[in-house]
Amino acid sequence: MNWLDRLAERCTRRVARNSSRRSFLALLGSALVGGAAVPLLPVARAADAGASGGTAADPGDPTKCDYWRNCAIDGYLCACCGGTVNTCPPGTEMSPITWIGTCRNPADGRDYIISYNDCCGKTSCGACLCQRNEGDRPVYRPHTANDYNWCLGTASAVYNCTVTVILGTAAPKS
Ligand code: ABN
Fold first, then answer.
1. How many whole angstroms separate alpha carbon 161 and alpha carbon 75?
2. Which amino acid residue places its CA nearest to atom 4 of ligand 1?
3. Domains in the chain, please, with CATH?
């Protein structure tokens, strides 16, 4: 019966070890440390695009004039005004009528169609004024000029700042 006693004892010890308070705490500790590491993973970093860090696919700082999407901008950057690269600051409304530009993304060398939507309903933000004007034409050709208040079709015509929204890739020149 000795061997049976030893087997029973080993089994009992194993069950006790795996269901002890200490192993429960160890499991909880791993979950907490593992959970804290999740934001360091690439997927979580990519989800942060639009703050001011940039990502591998969308490099640069949207609060700076030299950020690639700003190549044809004339206005205040909403990312400096309480909004983000593509969302208006609280209390303003995005204009449905916009100025469109084409900017090259240095990450992949492709040209992207960028919509410069003005955010409307609060007085001018006054921060991060950028005038890069690539492709801009004189104001007597309104559809190709960026020096306009595009707060049209909004409840208020008061201009606050401009967001840069990617509409798609531009077809390569044939
Ligand atoms: N589209 C930006 C803007 C607003 C008011 C005046 C000039 C340019």
1. 6
2. 149
3. 2-40 (no CATH), 46-169 (2.60.30.10)
From the candidates 58, 118, 136, 150, give the one annotated as an active-site residue: 118
Q: What is the pTM of this model?
A: 0.70
Distance of CA 52 from the midpoint of ligand 1 (Å): 23
Q: Which amino acid is at 171?
A: A
Separation of CA 150 and ligand 1 centre (Å): 7
Residue nearest to atom 2 of ligand 1 (CA): 75
Which residue type does 98 have?
A: T
Q: 136-145: long-range contacts at Cβ-Cβ below 8 A with a sequence spacing of 24 or more?
A: 136/72, 136/74, 145/99
Show pLDDT as tens, one digit a residue, over the chain (174 residues).
577 777 777 766 776 666 665 555 565 555 555 545 544 444 334 334 444 568 999 999 999 999 999 999 999 999 999 999 999 999 999 999 998 889 999 999 999 999 999 999 999 999 999 999 787 776 666 666 778 899 999 999 999 999 999 999 998 776
